[in-house]
Every structure is written in C-alpha cells, then in structure tokens.
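Annotators were shown the component list below and the corresponding predicted structure, then asked to write short factual statements about the assembly.
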Amino acid sequence: MKTDNVYEAGHTHEAEALTEFCPQYARAINVLGRRWMGVILRVLLTGPHRFNEILGVIPGLSDPTLSQRLRELETEGLVTRRVLPTSPVRVEYELTPAGRDLERVVREISTWAATWMSAAPAT
Amino acid sequence: MKTDNVYEAGHTHEAEALTEFCPQYARAINVLGRRWMGVILRVLLTGPHRFNEILGVIPGLSDPTLSQRLRELETEGLVTRRVLPTSPVRVEYELTPAGRDLERVVREISTWAATWMSAAPAT
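Structure shown to annotators:
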C-alpha cells in the first residue's frame, strides 16, 4: 500500500486525506449501488411519490424490481410507506431524514455525470 | 408525477431543484454502482496502486472480480493502466482526471455513511 504517493489535491477545501478502506462507506455503497437504487432515490428526492408515479418516470424499471428496491429502502430506514386515508386509499413512498440527506450525494453524482458522462464511451 | 410537493430544502445553498430523471445521471449510476466499484475507486483516490495492493485492502474482493472492474474502469475512461519499465515490470492502476473528479462523490457518500450507516439495521 502506498500512502506517500497521493494525487495532488484538486479540492483544496478538503483537508483530510481519504483512508483506503472504510467499512461504513463499503456498506453504504453496497446498498446505494444496487441496480436502479440511485435513480429511484433521485425521484423520491423531488418529493413523496406513489408506486406507479416512480415506475412512470424511470425507463426500463420493472414492477417487481421497484417493489424489491422499495422494500430494501424501507429495511435500511431510508424510505417510509405512508397510507393516506383517502377513498380509494392512496399509498405514498417518502424519504426519511436519512434518505433526504442523500441529496448531496445525488447532486455530486449529477454534477460529475454532466461533466464527464456525455464524452465517455458507450457501454 | 408531483412537482409541486417537494421537501423543504435542507441544503439552502443548492438553488436548483433536481429533475426526477436524468439519463446521464442514470448512466453514471449504472457504472459507479456496480459491485465493488465504489470501494475500488476509493482505494485509487488515495494514489496509484498495483493490482495486489488493491486486492489486499478490500476484504472479500476476489481476483477475477477486481480484474473485471479494472477493465470496466479503463473502458469508461476512469482508470489508466501504467507499465513502469522496472525489472521486474511494475504495473500500476491510476485514475484519469475523470476518475479523480469522483473524489467529491466518494467524500459525500463517506460523510453520509458516517452519519447514518452505523445506526441503521444490518443487511
């Protein structure tokens, strides 16, 4: 491991050096990195949504996958499922404070993607 | 879709509202979210590393998976493979400017993880 050969700091406002490995970071990545998770979180960051509203704005996302991801987000404490006492009953998915706090992450990825993703080779 | 019901802005320095869906963001998420990608990128953000150095600091990462991820990172233009003319030859993996620019993303995820991930339920 090389700890003496770090890149020149591009972001000088960041004082502390990154550690090579961090278990909490690895765990967060494992949850947030799951397929479709990042795009679902982005939709929910714009406000509470119903299941079909989320499905409607994400091209290619299937019904069972969205169900599974929403359950996982509930388990992780990032989303709450709210049943509104309307007729018919209306179910909404809403971010918890932990979920809403992901806004900075989503914005940084968006900024990075806007800068670098258009010119990159296709996958 | 509800565009009028947004959460109260917790981060008031962010002026612009997020759009619900952004194709470049979705594409970035699809690359960065792959299993182990985030932890590999974090290691490389601390400086250029040899294959076995990366393998050594990430618990549970297998040799073939690291090979595959590094190839994907090269294809996406985020990592370059450098062959140093030593004896024996030394091969290092180094982030490109696009890869290094992910530091803000990695730092925001780290900050979020340090705040929320310790108290969250185990997966």
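Statements collected:
1. Chain A touches chain B through 69 residues (CB under 8 Å).
2. Chain A has one domain: 23-114.
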